[in-house]
Every structure is written in structure tokens, then in C-alpha cells.
Amino acid sequence: MPGPYLFEYCILRYVPRVERGEQINIGVVLYCKEAGFLDMRYRLDEGRVRAFYAAADTDLLCLHLRSIALICKGDPEAIGIASMDQSFRFRWVAANRSTIIQTSPIHPGLCDDPAEKLDQLYEDLVR
What we know:
By secondary structure, the chain is of the alpha+beta class. The protein has helices spanning 46-52, 58-73, 86-94, 114-125; strands spanning 5-14, 24-32, 37-42, 101-103, 107-111.
């Protein structure tokens, strides 16, 4: 059955110093239960990140982003959480944290194609 599908998404944000509250968007995670879809897009522009915070550990940041991607895909390399259902994995990724990668509130919407919508959100909010 084609859409429209109800979807939820959150924005991934780099927050180098939590106490300052400054952030830049680095990714988007989209979940659509009806379509069985959970995926993310991210871009780590090292020049932009270092301009934002010169002491950024971009290797660590890349490791965290790759881990989130594995969790979204349900890849066994992500041990534990990746074996949970998509809804649990999305809620876990989107949960509030006080770390260098934080998420926006979850936003809902309707779309005909979740993968296409994820690409659109990525272009609009991250690139």
C-alpha cells in the first residue's frame, strides 16, 4: 500500500561544549513504522566542525556517527541495541543526552517515500 506514511525524524547535532549550548546540525534520523524504515544521513564537514570548535575530535565524532548508522540498520556489529526492534532503536537514538551528539525533539510528518523524505530533510537541514 503506497503512502502517505506517518514518519518521525530527529536532527543530530554536534555540541562540542555542552555547557555553552552551541550546536551545528550534522545528521538526520527518520523512522517510519508503516514502511518498516529506519535510516539516517549524516555529513561531517571537518573544516566546518573545526571552525566551529578548533579542538574537535573528529575521529571520535565519526566513530559515534558510524555507530548510530549501524544501530539504525540493525547491524549486529552494534551489539545489543541493534537487535531490538526499529521503534526501540529509533527511540534510543532520539533520546535526550548530554553528550557531544545530541538530538532535536522528534518531529512528525507524512510522506509517500521515507527514503526520499530522509534525503530531502538531510538536504534542507544539514547540507
